[in-house]
Amino acid sequence: MINQFRNLNPINLLLLFAYTFFMRMAIFAELPSALQFEFLEPYAKFLIHIPIGEVLSPATNVFFAAIIIYVQAILFNRVINNHVLLTKPGYLPALLYITSASLFMPFLVLSPTLICNFLLIWIMDKFLKIGKSTTAIMPMFDIGMIIAIGTLIYFPFIVMLVMIWLTLLLYRSFDLREWLSGLVGFLTIFFFLAVYYYWNDSISMFYKIWLPLGNKFPSVFKINYDDYLVLVPVLVMLILASLQLRENFFRSFISTRKAFQMLFFMFLVGLVSFYTKPDFRLHHFLLCVPPGAVLLAYYFSNATKRWFYESLFLIFVVTIQYFLFV
């Protein structure tokens, strides 16, 4: 299966579409009686209310979630191929994106983080272009606005602001205007939100939006380890990918090295940003799928022992299906 997606054969688009629904067999086989989908954070609903979650049946919810994952996978695949992050262009990034976005049952339904991944892929593309730009002021301003829009949808997305400065550290020498432009872009969106609150005599509530940023990072985690055994193949592949990347690191182009460093930081930021939402759900970790899928795709793009990497991917898929059904 891996060999099939190592090339740009157009038939792979149809195979990916079928594969997207194959990975969702478990939820289609036993649909929940009801599914809630909140498209915007409460403070954004004050500005605009979109009752999407109130009109979708569970079947429609899961169907549209699958379509969104497929579209995101194609967009994601295009970004990775355009920036030449793998040894050769193909559909491996899309394959690994769809697979990684099927790890847990909450990943299979509509959620704010699923919508935010459109923005995350867009941001990823803009970050990867930074090293080729003569100036980063306008791109960073745009990224700041995109992060602000994502924050209206899902508050922990605000932590992606850190990525602006981490990326600038990786790609460019210090320029105060570039460092501030992203923050200005972010504040531009929230300035209009603040004006709307003021017009409605609710400006005293505006400061409450930022209270979650003061949350303490939890020191104790209650984890049912049986629910996360599906991550064992993922960890194995991530370790193998890291070793492969380390072996090729200094033989790669400088832009490729910086790109993988940036994606590693993006993965970490997406992982730890859950603390800003005390009632976060498992679907939060969909934010880790785009950067994580790049690393997995890198391993399968460079692996040489076919019997091993095909078997490893098959174990990965079977493990996901097993835990989704049981």
Automatic annotation (TrEMBL):
Pfam families linked to this entry: DUF6427
Transmembrane segments: 12-35, 55-75, 95-123, 143-168, 180-199, 228-246, 258-276, 282-300, 307-325
Record key words, sorted: Membrane, Transmembrane, Transmembrane helix
UniProt name for this protein: Beta-carotene 15,15'-monooxygenase
